[in-house]
Design goal:
The protein has twelve helices and 18 strands. The protein has 393 residues and is an alpha/beta fold. It has two domains: 143 residues, Enolase-like, N-terminal domain (Enolase-like, domain 1); 230 residues, Alpha-Beta Barrel (TIM Barrel). The longest helix is centred in the middle third of the chain and has 22 residues. Bound molecules: magnesium ion. The site of magnesium ion has 4 residues, from loops.
């Protein structure tokens, strides 16, 4: 084996960032919703907890020669769980490692706790953050964008779909969608968790208001049994949904497969899964025809393998996007640009645009497309201005 000349990993650090926002993610507080003493709220529509700020975990890996790689992962709730795993377990284990071994490092970290059953959850998120930082460091050390290290670059732009239409009323949500349509966006997804006027009514209003030339999608937020979902999706059909997301509880693999087999619209699944293993069983059952890997859960090493396995099953990849500073979003664009089967990427406009001022990057989303960052590695760095929002661990 020829030894790599790259500088070895010398230091691994993690940071919690919490950026205040006026309107919570997914829109204003609904009936029965309030922000608790820890800054969280529970959405009544899907019984899920969300932060009232943009919370995220950053990972900084420094090599012997001072080169720095940045990663990011989910810090949406209890971010200390993730930083504790990174600081106590993952970081110390990879000191001295060669940054040109990212997939090997990811597999080694996964194996550390496998026998104890920690293969996902906060453990998986922590690995994802470290993995993204190792890839960024690798790219910087060899002076190549990460997409080139993933097998090659197919594009510099990825079509974006608008995710979520935060607004108190249906009229406000339609007006927001129209403003994006006027700026060149052609695909829109709304969220059942905050669809206060009814899921069918919202799709009808969007189709009638936006016209025949846009794509419409709905995230059902795991709310339904299989039969309820089949019935509901039938009622959506007159308004031609492009895909329907997450109809049944994540635990209900049978229900997902049943819905996938019965409905006449593509199903999209996967934002909550961390590894190939979770995807594989659903792919074999043909539960969905679109997979939605979330970079903050999978990291680059798993993401690219999931995307290529999806291609082997003739499925599309439409990556998930979540609350973050933009670093895992950039990683997701690099992976998307390397894949042959990625027609659209989710665009969390209410998070992405407001947090761009806290990163240095050429990454943008305009005219219905994401522009990939440029430069070696991921092409994105935290700006100094973000450190005012550093939260104590
Ligand atoms: Mg979703």
């Amino acid at each position: 084996m020829t030894a790599s000349k790259l500088p070895r990993i010398q230091k691994v650090e993690s940071f919690i960032i919490s950026i205040p926002r006026d309107t919570p993610y997914l829109g204003p507080l609904g009936p029965g919703e309030q922000i608790n003493a820890r800054g969280y709220l529970v959405r009544q529509g899907n019984r899920t907890i969300y932060p009232s700020t943009d919370m995220s975990v950053l990972v900084k890996i420094t090599a012997e020669d001072g080169t720095v790689g940045w990663g990011e992962t989910y810090g949406i709730v209890a971010p200390q769980a993730v930083t504790s795993i990174i600081d106590d377990v993952l970081g110390p284990v990879i000191l001295g490692r060669d940054p040109s071994d990212p997939m090997v490092i990811q597999e080694d970290l996964y194996d550390l706790m496998r026998v104890r059953g920690f293969s996902g959850g906060y453990y998986g998120d922590a690995i994802a953050g470290v993995d993204i930082a190792v890839w960024d460091l690798y790219g910087k050390c060899v002076n190549l964008p990460v997409v080139k290290l993933l097998g090659g670059q197919r594009s510099t732009r990825i079509p974006a779909y608008i995710s979520g239409l935060p607004g108190k009323t249906l009229d406000e949500r339609l007006a927001l969608a129209r403003s994006f349509q006027a700026r060149g966006f052609k695909a829109f997804k709304y969220a059942a968790a905050v669809s206060f006027d009814g899921i069918v009514e919202e799709m009808r209003a969007l189709r009638e208001g936006l016209g025949p030339d846009v794509e419409l999608m709905v995230d059902l937020h795991w709310k339904f049994t299989a039969q309820e979902a089949i019935q509901l999706i039938d009622r959506l059909m007159p308004w031609r949904p492009c895909f329907v997301e997450a109809p049944c509880a994540p635990e209900d693999a049978e229900g997902q497969a049943q819905v996938g087999a019965r409905v006449r619209v593509p199903l999209a699944l996967g934002e909550e899964w961390h590894t190939l293993y979770e995807y594989r069983s659903r792919m074999e059952r043909r539960s969905m025809s679109i997979v939605q890997p979330e970079m903050g859960h999978t990291g680059l090493s798993q993401f690219i393998q999931i995307g290529r396995m999806a291609q082997a099953f003739h499925m599309r990849v439409m990556p998930h996007a979540s609350i973050g500073l933009g670093i895992f979003q950039a990683a997701s664009l690099h992976a998307a640009a390397a894949l042959p089967n990625c027609p659209m990427h989710e665009y969390q406009h209410s998070v992405f645009d407001r947090n761009l001022r806290f990163v240095r990057t050429r990454m943008r989303c305009a005219d219905g497309h994401f522009e990939l960052p440029e430069g070696p590695g991921l092409g994105i760095e935290p700006d100094d201005s973000v450190w005012q929002y550093l939260r104590p661990k």
